[in-house]
């Protein structure tokens, strides 16, 4: 079964940088797209972007483009979500997901356990 | 940009049937857009519940069912159980040139 194991909770100050990770099952990592979904406290789900680890092709939601960087290391089957300068409004739970589906009818079939990011001075 | 609207909450007694609607708007959400559903139990990550409008993944009880007609989709839970108390989200894919994933606004199901 596919497993997505995310890095642990983080507490950071505004202006600091951060990279969180998501390690996938090796046998599926380079043949699937992986993405990130944000859930702010008490709020709904927001898609941030996705990456194809085999060639690092990346697509971003317009709401998050320029705000975060998504990357992947296929040698370690790990996807990353990175901020260069955190804001308090980045405080949220972040989920790693695997994309499934058919052409332009996509969904997320596997979810990581979530990484809680808290940004506070 | 497409928007998927759900009722904020629905409730029912154990054993009852409840339905959650998911209504699309925007020029890029049409009759050909499939809808998928996720269940998020309290304090846990979301889990895929229904794909392609009606398909239940292995392990999902058959009391959960989905349907779609035109630009509206529904999730039904029959024989409601206490363990079904959770948040439910619909999701579709905006098939415009810059396609992206759209989530519904979410529905809290309360078992009375």
From the structure above, extract its key features.
heterodimer; A: 121 residues; mainly beta; 7-stranded mixed β-sheet; 4-stranded antiparallel β-sheet; B: mainly beta; 6-stranded mixed β-sheet; 10 strands; 48% strand
Strand content of chain B: over 45%
Average pLDDT of chain B works out at 92
In total, how many beta strands of chain B? Answer: 10
What class, by secondary structure content of chain A? Answer: mainly beta
Order of helices and strands of chain A: EEEHEEEEEEEE
- So what's the overall shape of chain A? globular
Q: Helix tally of chain A? A: 1
Quaternary: heterodimer
Q: Gap between N and C termini of chain A, in Å?
A: 40 Å
Count up the helices of chain B. Answer: 0
Which stretches of chain A are low in confidence, meaning pLDDT under 50 for 5 or more residues running? Answer: none
Query: What letter string, H or E per element, gives the SSE order of chain B?
Result: EEEEEEEEEE
Biggest β-sheet strands, sense, barrel of chain A: 7 strands, mixed
**Record field, number of beta strands of chain A:** 11
> Whole-number average pLDDT of chain A?
95
Structural class of chain B: mainly beta
Main beta sheet strand tally, sense and closure of chain B: 6 strands, mixed
Shape of chain B: elongated
Please describe what this structure looks like.
- The complex is a heterodimer of chains A (121) and B (112).
- Chain A has 121 residues and is mainly beta.
- Chain A has one helix and eleven strands.
- In chain A, strands 2, 4, 5, 6, 9, 10 and 11 form a seven-stranded mixed β-sheet that branches.
- In chain A, a hairpin with a 5-residue loop joins strand 4 (34-39) and strand 5.
- The radius of gyration of chain A is 14 Å and the shape is globular.
- Chain A starts with a strand and ends with a strand.
- With 112 residues, chain B is mainly β.
- In chain B, 0% of the residues lie in helices and 48% in strands.
- In chain B, strands 2, 4, 5, 8, 9 and 10 form a six-stranded mixed β-sheet that branches.
- In chain B, strand 6 and strand 7 (72-77) form a beta hairpin.
- Chain B starts with a strand and ends with a strand.
- At the A-B interface, strand 5, strand 9 and strand 10 of A face strand 8 and strand 9 of B.
């Amino acid at each position: 079964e596919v497993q997505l194991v995310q890095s642990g909770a983080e507490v950071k100050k505004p202006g600091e940088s951060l990279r969180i990770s998501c390690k996938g099952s090796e046998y599926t990592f380079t043949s699937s797209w992986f993405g990130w979904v944000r859930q702010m406290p008490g709020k709904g789900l927001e898609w941030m972007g996705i990456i194809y680890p085999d060639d690092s092709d990346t697509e971003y939601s317009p709401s998050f483009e320029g705000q975060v960087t998504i990357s992947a290391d296929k040698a370690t089957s790990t996807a990353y979500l990175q901020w260069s300068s955190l804001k308090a409004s980045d405080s949220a739970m972040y989920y790693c997901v695997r994309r499934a589906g058919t052409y332009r009818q996509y969904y997320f079939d596997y979810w990581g356990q979530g990484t809680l990011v808290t940004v506070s001075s | 940009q497409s928007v998927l609207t759900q009722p904020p909450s629905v409730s029912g007694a154990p054993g009852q049937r409840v339905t959650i609607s998911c209504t699309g708007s925007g020029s890029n959400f049409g009759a050909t857009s499939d809808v998928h559903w996720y269940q998020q139990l309290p304090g846990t990550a979301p889990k895929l519940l229904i794909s392609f409008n009606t398909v239940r993944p292995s392990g999902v009880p058959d009391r959960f069912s989905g349907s779609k007609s035109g630009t509206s989709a529904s999730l039904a839970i029959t024989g409601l159980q206490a363990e079904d108390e959770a948040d439910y989200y619909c999701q579709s894919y905006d098939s415009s040139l810059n396609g992206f994933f759209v989530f519904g606004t979410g529905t809290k199901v309360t078992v009375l």
